[in-house]
Specification:
The complex is a heterodimer of chains A (about 140) and B (about 425).
Chain A (H helix, E strand, L loop, with lengths): L5 E9 L4 H11 L4 E8 L3 E8 L2 H10 L4 E10 L6 H11 L4 E6 L4 E6 L2 H10 L11
Chain B lengths: L7 H4 L3 H22 L1 H9 L21 H6 L13 E6 L10 E5 H17 L7 E4 L7 H13 L2 E3 L6 H11 L3 E4 L1 H13 L11 E5 L5 H11 L2 E8 L4 E7 L6 E3 L4 E6 L13 E7 L10 E7 L1 E2 L11 E2 L4 E2 L4 E3 L2 E3 L1 H9 L8 E8 L2 E9 L9 H19 L4 E5 L14 E3 L4
Helix pairs in contact in B: 2-3, 5-6, 7-8, 8-9, 10-11
Classes of the chains: A alpha+beta (about 140), B alpha/beta (about 425).
Chain lengths: ~140, ~425
């Protein structure tokens, strides 16, 4: 059975001109499509998180380009495209006392979540009938 | 643990024998230096001292110091006490800001002494005629390469004179030749371990047993890492071109301090400020007097290296005084907002944090009247996390531990791996951008 989470790549990036461009170019050169990303940044560095279908290849390509890369599992859900859509998902997490570590939107109305308890989160989402996107659905 | 000795007669000599020997040679050496070396005769005359004033080893304290400045001022041959015709080799230290190196000369007898002392060194570190030794020290004026080379040949090891650099090739040779002993700077050993990881070469793919590392101060934490990464027993050794080169002191496999070759050198430990002897077991600057050097005899050379002396017995059977691993150099000492800081302290803190490879750089700047210290640490996969608060937590942990150790607020900056310069010779960990 395929897993209910997506594998996200997180990359450590120094705040230097052209570093993000280098990441995107090295992926683009190998025909790897980026479905979505987010950046958390400080004065000195950032964490570039991205979602690709062929994440294993992407990981290898980035590693070869000298980047520090970390893989971790995140949940991807399709949020109803209507007012209160995201609120509904979030409130069901909070009722179940699951914390959101971070979230970001990728293509369309797909939202990436990293929760402090992803397993419990997936179970909850399935019960609520919210569509969960798998790696192969990308 | 099996301990072997190269020269048991002198390495296990009792205190009386050593001191009588030292006094006899010291008197001769002082007389010769006074007669042959104008720069030192002048120093002695200024202090109103003559060779006849030396009656005991303690009288050594009456004599003036020799410093690196004497070497640069007397560049190139002014430190030679024999005719050039009798000198068969020169070695030297890296140049100073004036562009002048310390030039050391060796007579045939000096080279013989040096090879024998380096034979003691490599024997103490585990090497014998059965070993295949790869010298990854630079060859050239630097004493490390040729010094260890001489000692290794003397004990009958098979020597590969590879010099430093081209790390992939170093690893290939270790594999192809079945190298059992690696001779380099500790920094370069770490670099080799790093490239081995990249090339997926494990310690078990090689035949290394011994690592003989010197030419720069290194911490016990670095030693642990080299031991583990290369699967070897890493020992420290010590020397400087001004008094000979490596072979002045060396660790045995007990690794509890470096045995000083007291039949060839007298060691003193002084307070670098007051120039007075420090109390037993106190940290001080190492001062060395050569007893047997012909070409460049040196009286009371200020090494600028900080260490401590141990006189208790060592299980290996060697009887001489031992010196602790060098903690730093008096001129490595950074004074930041009036606080004395050694790069080795910062290294110790970083090694204490799980997963941190010791790749770091210290950057000093001045803003107005205030010194700023920034410690740049490479973020490896083991340290990296996709959650910002965990990276922030790491920064805070390093900051907190540095503050505890140094009593200073350091700015901690996480940087990408391999963005810091790699060093194949001696490491340059400090970038001082404060206006002089």
């Amino acid at each position: 059975m395929s897993k209910n989470t997506l594998t996200q790549l997180a990359i450590f990036v120094e705040n230097r001109t052209g570093r993000l461009a280098e990441i995107c170019k090295s992926l683009g050169d190998r025909g790897i499509n980026i479905y979505g990303f987010s950046i958390a940044d400080t004065e000195d560095y950032g964490i570039f998180r991205l979602i690709c279908k062929r994440y294993q290849l992407a990981h290898q390509v980035l590693k070869e380009s000298g980047f520090t890369v970390r893989e971790n599992e995140v949940i991807c859900v399709r949020v109803p495209h209507q007012p209160g859509g995201l609120a509904g998902v979030l409130s069901s997490f909070s009722k179940a006392e699951i914390n959101v570590e971070y979230l970001y939107a990728i293509a369309d109305t797909l939202i990436i979540f990293n929760l402090d308890n992803n397993e419990k989160g997936v179970e909850l989402l399935r019960k609520s009938g919210i569509e969960i996107i798998r790696q192969e659905d990308l | 643990m099996i301990h072997r000795l190269w020269d048991p007669r002198w390495e296990t000599a009792d205190r009386n024998t050593i001191q009588n020997h030292q006094l006899e040679l010291l008197k001769e050496q002082v007389k010769r230096v006074f007669d042959k070396l104008p720069y030192y005769r002048k120093k002695m005359q200024e202090k109103n001292i003559s060779p006849e004033d030396i009656h005991s080893i303690e009288d050594l304290r009456l004599l003036p110091f020799t410093t690196k400045k004497d070497f640069t001022e007397n560049y190139p041959f002014g430190m030679f006490a024999v005719p050039l015709n009798d000198v068969v080799r020169v070695q030297g230290s890296s140049g100073t800001t004036t562009g002048k190196s310390s030039i050391a000369g060796y007579t045939r007898y000096d080279l013989e002494t040096w090879a024998n002392l380096c034979a003691r060194l490599v024997t103490a570190a585990g090497v014998s005629s059965h070993d295949i030794a790869q010298v990854s020290f630079g060859y050239g004026l630097f004493t490390g390469g040729f010094g260890l080379h001489g000692g290794l040949e003397r004990v009958g090891a098979l020597v590969i004179p590879l010099s430093s650099g081209n790390t992939s090739r170093q690893i290939k040779f270790m594999r192809d030749f079945g190298t059992t002993a690696l001779i380099s700077t500790p920094t370069y050993a770490l670099r080799i371990a790093e490239v081995m990881k990249e090339e997926k070469v494990g310690a078990d793919d090689l035949s290394l047993n011994w690592g003989l590392f010197g030419a720069e101060p290194w911490s016990e934490g670095i030693r642990k890492q080299i031991d583990n990464d290369l699967g070897i027993i890493a020992t420290d050794n010590y020397g400087m071109s001004e008094v000979m080169g490596p072979g002045v002191s060396y660790e045995c496999l007990e690794r509890n301090g470096m045995h000083i070759a007291e039949d060839h050198f007298i060691v003193e430990m002084i307070d670098p400020e007051t120039e007075e002897p420090v109390a037993p077991l106190e940290v001080g600057e190492i001062v060395l007097t050569t007893l047997t050097k012909q070409a460049v005899p040196v009286i009371r050379y200020r090494s600028r290296d900080l260490s401590r002396l141990f006189t208790d017995a060592c299980p290996c059977g060697r009887t001489g005084v031992r010196m602790e691993k060098v903690r730093g150099r008096t001129d490595d000492m950074l004074i930041i907002r009036g606080v004395n800081v050694f790069p080795s302290q910062i290294e110790g803190v970083l090694l204490g944090i799980e997963h941190t490879q010791p790749h770091y750089q210290i950057v000093l700047t001045r803003h107005g009247a205030l010194d700023e210290i920034e410690v740049q640490v490479e973020v490896t996969e083991g340290l990296f996390h996709d959650e910002m608060r965990k990276l922030k937590h790491l920064e805070e942990e390093i900051h907190y531990k540095l503050k505890n150790e140094l009593n200073l607020d350091c700015r901690v900056k996480l940087v990408e791996p391999k963005s810091l310069e790699r060093f194949e010779g001696k490491a340059k960990r400090v970038l001082d951008l404060r206006a002089k």
